[in-house]
Task: structure prediction
Amino acid sequence: MAEGCQKEIGEKRRPVVDVGTYGAEYTPATKRRRVGEVGLANILEGIVDALKDRVEVSYLFMKPVPKKEAPDYLDIIKRPMDLSTIRDKVRKMEYKDRNEFRHDMWQIAYNAHVYNDRRNPGIPPLADQLLELCDYLLMEKQESLSEAEAGI
Result:
């Protein structure tokens, strides 16, 4: 070992920074906001998981529409949205409240109607069911969502 780096046997290792009780007594304002964001993200991710678990309704909306299956999709749909994109946004804590999240869920249904009403009339009702289920889950989590949003 290099000179000056050796320790005596039995000598205790000193912490690099001694925080003492400072960390326990003081929490900066940004910490509270972060807790609210994390709480909101956890609730919203649970909702996304519940929606994905309802495969009979959500299977078409799990991933972005493949160009191979719908070559003109991006010519018609200007704001594509799907559950994996929503999950990514949840994990990056991009949603600051449930309304932003719900708007992206609405976007899935809107896109399904715009693109499929005349082409594949069986798809829009699935998107509507997905949105209804989302609304139900948001209502069910209303109290914890309000607490999380208050912390942001």
Q: What stands out?
A: The mean pLDDT is 88. The chain has one domain: 28-150. The chain is about 60% helix and 0% strand. The two ends are 50 Å apart (CA to CA).
